[in-house]
Amino acid sequence: MTTNTIEQPRVVSREEWIAARKQHLIREKAFTRQRDQLSAERRALPWVKVDKPYRFDGPDGQQTLAELFDGRSQLVIYHFMFGPGWEEGCPGCSFLADHIDGANLHLAHHDVSLVVVSHAPWREFQSFKKRMGWRFKWVSSYASDFNYDYQVSATPNQIAEGKVIYNYEASKDPGEEMPGLSTFYMTAAGYIFHTYSAYARGLDMLVGAYNYLDLMPKGRDETEIMDWVRHHDRYDEATTGNPSAETPAACCGPEASVSRA
């Protein structure tokens, strides 16, 4: 829950502030170089050839994984938590999804297709997508093993038996649906390779609003993970943007949250 107070640091002269800022800038530049190195190492990871004939249902009917590339060589899939029978999507995934359409305006012109995939049948999330006003392509993997193979869905039996793997380790608190991101590359000959997947706090970089908050005096200002996040049509404007107390917070649990390492 957001707070209205902040522990104020010491107040100094402009000269002292500039000196402190320059010292911090040294660390920020070092972090930027480390991040660039980490990104290079990520791109150098080995690939896995995708041979399974996955099928997806969407606005263009049934499509293969290759068809989701839409003529480009790179594909990024966001695994959105919307399970069979759900009436609306996870608020945490929705928070992230609010950033997708803007990015897509540019990615589509830089050899990247970005597609959202959920486990629920396609027709079950159409009214929610319309309500949210999103334009991105959103397809269903309901008829295939895609969600299970990429470890973002689990069966009740897997959960009961403690056999759910999430973020590359046994999950302590799994749900039937969990968020993630997977990237793929297709060669000129049509071969598809899985190049990367990220889960949990590995999705942080996709949430632009959090990057803004990290620059603010109060930071993310959370008591619990994403406790302030709501669907964007569920905020109480009368309280200057603070969430309504009656509205459930993000459904991403501790194991699935985009804000937990």
Automatic annotation (TrEMBL):
Q: Which InterPro entries match?
A: DUF899_thioredox, Thioredoxin-like_sf
The UniProt entry, under SUPFAM superfamilies, shows:
Thioredoxin-like
Q: Where is this region: Disordered?
A: 237-261
Top-rank taxon? Bacteria
Entries under Gene3D superfamilies matching the protein: Glutaredoxin
Q: What is this protein called?
A: DUF899 domain-containing protein
